[in-house]
């Protein structure tokens, strides 16, 4: 007699902890110099050097985040992604991400390696 296979929801409920919920994985933090265009899911601890206000598109939440991004502040970005704007990389956090202010970091910022100043060009490769 064949046993029925379990659906995804039924498998999700199985876990080793007593609460019945699947355990959360610890975040893996990335260094800024490893970021590449078009990637996402990054967890970073960054220090704000400067912030430039972009005109809002109607969401008042952006005003609150701008208050958090003062120079010298250390911020943890979870589930961040790289957006391309005019050939340059921008670090963005969408609705699934998280921005947290944390205690001042003890690392030195490499200001000579500013990835926002690097210009990328989209190149189409013709397949033969």
TrEMBL record:
Residues 1-26 are annotated as: Disordered. Signal peptide: none annotated. Residues 66-101 form the Single-stranded DNA binding protein Ssb-like OB fold domain. It comes from the Eukaryota. This is Single-stranded DNA binding protein Ssb-like OB fold domain-containing protein. It comes from Salix dunnii.
């Amino acid at each position: 007699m064949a046993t029925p296979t379990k659906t995804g929801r039924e498998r999700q409920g199985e876990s080793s902890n007593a609460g019945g919920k699947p355990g959360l994985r610890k975040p893996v933090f990335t260094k800024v110099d490893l970021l590449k265009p078009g990637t996402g899911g990054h967890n970073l601890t960054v220090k704000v050097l400067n912030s430039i206000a972009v005109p809002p598109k109607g969401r008042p939440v952006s005003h609150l985040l701008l208050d958090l991004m003062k120079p010298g502040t250390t911020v943890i970005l979870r589930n961040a992604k790289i957006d391309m704007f005019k050939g340059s990389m921008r670090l963005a956090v969408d609705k699934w991400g998280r921005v947290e202010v944390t205690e001042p970091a003890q690392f030195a910022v490499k200001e000579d390696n500013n990835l926002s100043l690097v210009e990328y060009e989209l190149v189409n490769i013709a397949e033969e």
